[in-house]
Amino acid sequence: MFKKYFDDYEIGERWHSKGRTVTEADIVNFAGFSGDWYSLHTDVEYAKTTPFKQRIAHGMLVLSAASGLQIFEPGIVVAFYGMDQVRFTNPTFIGDTIHVEMTVEEMQDKGNGTGVLTAKQEVKKQTGETVITGTIKVLLNKR
């Protein structure tokens, strides 16, 4: 999404990423890296006793993977500016394929050759269900 200069975007513009399948290895590696070994993610027998009936991916794993599906073009992107109203709305299971859909909602000219682009971000899986929603802000260079 973030491969054009600030001035080249328009409110309402939409973008759709490629897909990525979440694997068991992703969950194990994320647990090891983050230290989050919560049983819902890593214990098959415990997960069977939950409303999900199986292990689910960490919300932060899915959010991180979604970040990797976005395009952050060097020289155009100055910095990641933040996220607001992030919600984990549905589970992501091992084997689900996620993608990112974004819509430009706001553009704020910073007056110094840059601007902050705010986009609604939805991470969806192959069923069409939204698993994460929120807004993302990125500081972009102007032409």
TrEMBL record:
Organism domain of life: Bacteria
Signal sequence coordinates: none
Coiled coil: none
Residue span, MaoC-like domain: 16-121
PANTHER family: BETA-METHYLMALYL-COA DEHYDRATASE, MONOAMINE OXIDASE-RELATED
Protein name: Acyl dehydratase
Phylogenetic classification of the source organism: Bacteria, Bacillati, Bacillota, Bacilli, Bacillales
